Every structure is written in structure tokens, then in C-alpha cells.
Amino acid sequence: MSESVPNESVPSESVHVDRDGGVATLTLDRQQAMNALDHPTKVVLRDRLRELAADSSVRAVVLTGAGDRAFCTGQDLKEHVALLQAGDPAPLSTVTEHYNPIVLAIATMPKPVIAAVNGMAAGAGASLAFAADFRVAASRAVFLLAFARIGLSVDTGSSWTLPRLIGHAKATELAMLAEPISAHDALAIGLVTEVVADEDLAARAAELAHRLAAGPTVAYGAIKSALHFSAGVDLTTALTREGELMAATGGSQDHKDAVAAFVAKQQATFSGR
Q1: Which pTM does this prediction carry?
Q2: Rounded CA gap, 49 and 90, in Å?
Q3: Average pLDDT, the chain
């Protein structure tokens, strides 16, 4: 078990991690900038996600934004412009140093990740939500792939995640036309898992997270791995990987306990091992 994330809030100016049993809630908190990602925030977000991924006591993660205006509006453009004008090379390396590790930490974390989208999710902020396993959106939430509006390609994994969520044609439309899409329209095309009333978002995300945290964590991690692996291989290779993961989960304590509970006609209790 990692000792990096205590059971109380992790102090940071822009990122907070709160623990409730096996659920860790990571909140982006730069409300004055609509939770945009400046350099310090990207560093802390990357490091906190890695810590949560490695902490075996964390069995589900909720990613959300503070306030009611924004989930995350991506790169802090004021900082970005200032660095460009100063000739600072940081903007040219941030994808490699920050955004790629951040999205990999979310997508490959061996436990479920829920994006609780409380408001505007734009640019890299939208991409963060796409990388999660579940997207619970407040009714006021809006998604916007804004990259093309400022002459940029997409990043933070959206070229990979978005077509797999909604198909190539719709992904092309959202990325190239860069038009906002409401939470309810996002639900209609399969971009989000569910839409709830604004005031119910935190409770619903927590409810789902606790349900997942009480489940077979090893199996959930294997399911994520299998789904990601199959995206780039043929059927035969995917079947081989399925067999490997089935053998691994078959040896887990969760599986043994679930089988014993089934035989005893009892409700299974999972330890996440």
C-alpha cells in the first residue's frame, strides 16, 4: 500500500484528494480560471493520479472540478500565451511531460475511474473525461473539443478515446467543427454514462464509486486491460490475452471468495485482492 495519499485531504492549491473508505475523489480547484490547467496543476494532477493508481487501498477514483461552472477547461491559455511570448520551450514539451502521463494514469489505472462532469469540459478537460471508465454528467455540463479553434490538433488521448466512444464520423465532427455539445446530447450519442440533476451529481458519483469500490477490483482492472488491448489487435491475439487475464483473475482471492459465496448461497464480499 502506498503511503503517499493519506486518509485526509492532500493539501494543494489547485488539486485536492479526499478519501472515503476505498473511494478517492480528486478535485481540480482553480475556480477563478474555470479549473484550467497551469503548470503546477498539471504536475500535481499527474503525480496524484500515479499515487492513486499504485495505492491498493484505493478501489475507485472520482475525478471532478470545483464549483459549478467548469469540470476542466484544459490548458490555461493565459499561461500558454505568456510562455510563448517569452520564448519559453515549456509549451512544446507539456504534452510529453504532463498530458500523456496524465491520460495514461487514468486509462490504465487498475481500478475504475469516474469523471463527475460538473460543468464545462473543454479541450484537454474534455479529453480527461473521455479517458475515464464512466462519465456522470450534471445537466448543465457541456463538452467542447476546442483544439481546432486555436489551430491545434487534439491531445490528452482524445484521438484514441473519442472514436471508441462514439465512432469515427462523430468524433471527426466534434474535433473539426469544435462545437459545444450539451450533456443530454452527449448522452444521446453515448458519450456519457448518465446525466443527473446538477444538485445530484456529487451524490450520484459517490454512489457509483462506492458500488465499484465494493466490487472485484482485480477483475475490473483486467476488464480495462482487455478492452484497451483488443482495440489494436486481431481476434486471435485478443483471445489469447483474454485467456491470460482469465487465468490471472481466476487465481484472485475475489474469485475464490465469490465462488465460495455462490456455493453457500450467500452474497459475495470482495476484498479487492
Answers
A1: 0.90
A2: 21
A3: 91
